[in-house]
Amino acid sequence: MNDNKVFALIDCNAFYVSCERVFNPKLNHRPVVALSNNDGCIIARSKEAKALGIKMGVPLFKVKDIVEKEKVIVFSSNYTLYADMSRRVMNIISEFAPSIEVYSIDEAFIDLTGIKLNYEDYAKSLRATILKYTGIPVSIGIGSTKTLSKVANHIAKDDEKLAGVCSLINFKDIDNVLEKTEVGEVWGVGRRLSEKLIRQGINNAKLLKYCDDRWIRKMMSINGLKTVTELRGTSCLPIQEISVTRKSCCTTRTFGRPLLDLKDIEQATATFARRATERIRSEGLVASSISVFLRTSPFDRGNRYYSNSSSITLSYPTCDTICIINNALIIVRKIFKQGYKYKKGGVLLSGFHNQGEEPPNLFTNTQKELPKLMLTIDNINQRYGSDTIQIASECHTTKWKQKRKNCTQSYTTQIDKLLLV
DNA sequence: TCTGGGGTCCTAGGACCC
DNA sequence: TCTGGGGTCCTAGGACCC
To answer: Which positions on chain C have an atom < 7 Å from some protein CB?
Structure first.
């Protein structure tokens, strides 16, 4: 632990909306929102949309009236575009800092400890550079711990006078700032914990900061104690520069409409399994455990709810799509029950090893290289689009395919989708 | 009609062992 | 009538993040 650290959190403003605005300036100053997969929930809102009272994460149909009345512009998620824009933003940030932790698609922590310049000036110039080269506006919060840099970032976003940058380093009255911060706004305090804390009279970050350690440990577990320690200015969550090897990889989707037939569900499951396998293969991993889950809609009061999952541990780890699909289908046939309207399913792979480093097995030869068939499929799909070659069990079905009514094109990643001026 | 997807970590409790 | 103690490992469920 070190008390003299400096962290900055760079967070893109309404990231998905900002990405759309880069390619369509007419969207500026207008209420714009972006939707989750299947056009379900609102997961990004422009300032103007927030001002209309549209809440984060709300299902689109619940705010239909406002959307229509106020002419809110609605986009389906264009992850290809957002991921590419994110990569560009992160590249610029890495040029400004010795170490960077890409925390999510629209956020990164950097370590500014020991930098000789004025932190705020430095952040302002980073902010201007990102805006100039990508068109994406960001907010930057600076603090002596990651948790405090998050607090600072909230302030930078909320207070227009600050022009997107807020530093709590050498700030005289942090307690005053924390007192104005709701306990649920603190990074690491979610809905459940904040309800629990408020019941105990702890409703702002300052009160949380001065709670007794043992009490915190009991109420919020070990991670909660780290959060509180960070509020006090002692850093215990370091920058995680190298992305550790993942522990699981899943592909799950809400179906575009309820599915009743096992056949349709098998096809969706096969596609989930193929996509998850492709992803681990591209990361040089093999999986030894496969889980499949299936459920009806938890919101549908008119139908009985059913949710089940099961898994298989393979006798040797693999990244062979066909093997993984076959096992996923065995599981889904086992958990499927006739007579339910299934709304969501997914495949989760885990128990990873690096390819070629699988534990020795008495009965099989370890595959030292990727099966040729898989390599060939990956090459073709990479070149001609991700679903060009599918596995027969997927059957090119479209029954479960998701809704995506209003999606922009891949402006930055496909040559024939370039913006025409 | 319509409610996302992809992760991580911690804890409690049960199974099992000697 | 009275049924140990200490340890490990696994899993499900619940919390968190974006």
So the answer is: 14-18
Measure, in angstroms, how far nucleotide C12 C1' is from residue A162 CA.
46
**Through-space separation of residue A231 CA and nucleotide C16 C1' in angstroms:** 17
What is the dihedral angle through the alpha carbons of A163, A169, A173, A179, rounded to the nearest 10 degrees? 70
Which residue in the block uniquely carries the two structure tokens 């500014």? A112
| A172-243 placed in CATH 1.10.274.10 | no
Q: Which of residues 247-286 of A touch strand B (CB under 7 A)?
A: 247-254, 257-258, 279
Alpha-helix runs per DSSP H in A52-164: 64-69, 79-96, 119-134, 146-158
3-class DSSP assignment, residue A228: helix
Predicted local confidence at residue A415, as pLDDT: 86
The pTM of this model reads: 0.92
Q: Are A331 and A291 in contact (CB under 8 A)?
A: yes
Q: Please, what CATH class does the domain formed by A248-394 belong to?
A: alpha beta
**All structural domains of chain A with their residue ranges:** 1-170, 172-243, 248-394
Supply the pLDDT for residue A366. 53
- Distance in angstroms (rounded) separating the CA atoms of residues A392 and A398: 14
CATH top class, domain A1-170: alpha beta
